[in-house]
Amino acid sequence: MALRRLCVAVVAALLAGLVTVALPAGAQAEVQHPRQEWLRKSTAGLFLHWGMFTAPKHLNCAEWERDVTGGGWTPDYWIDEARKLGASYVVLATFHSRLGYARPWPSKIPGSCATQRDLLGELAKAGKAKGVKVILYMTDDPQWHSEQGVQMLDSAAYSAHKGEQVDLTTREGFGKYSYDLFFEVMKNYNDLAGFWIDNDNEYWERNRLYEQIRELQPTWLLSNNNEDTPIMDTVSNEQKTGMFPSYDYPAATFTPMPRLSEACYKLPNTGDWWYDGGNHAVDTRLNTGRYITNAGTSIKSLMAETPMVNGRMPTQQETFNNFMSSWVQPIRESLQGVEGAGYMYGGMQPGFWNDGAHGVITINPASGKQYVHVVTRPRTDFVRLRDNGYRVTRVTDLRTGERMRFSQSAGHVSIEGITKWDEYDTVFAVETAGQQGFYTGVKASATSSKDGFPAANLTDGSYEKFWDANAAQPVSISLDLGRRKEAAFLAINQRESSPTHARVSFGRPEDSSRIKDYQLTASDDGRNWWHVRSGSLPSARGTQFIDIGSQEARFLRLTVLDTWGGSQAPVYFKALKIDEIRVGHSYPRSSRAGALEAEHAARSGAVRGTFCAACSGQRQVTGLGGGERNAVTYRDVSVATAGTYNLRLDLTAGSASSVSVSVNGGAPVSVAVPADRADVPDPTSVAVPLNAGSNTVRVFSTGKAVGLDRISVGGLPPSNYTPKTTLTVLPHGIQWVAPGQQSVKITARLRLDADDQIDAVSLAPVLPAGWTVTGAPATRSSMRLAGLLEGTWTVTSPAGADVGSVSIPVAASFQLLSSDRKVSGTVPVRTRPADRVFVREAEDSANTFGSTGLTGCGACSGAEKVRNIGGSPEAAVIFPNVSVPAAGTYRLFIHFTVNGPRSYFVSVNGGAPVEVKLNGVGNSTPYVAEISVALNAGVNTIRFGNDQAGAPDLDQIAIA
Question: Cis peptide leading into 731, omega within 30 of 0?
Answer without folding.
Answer: yes
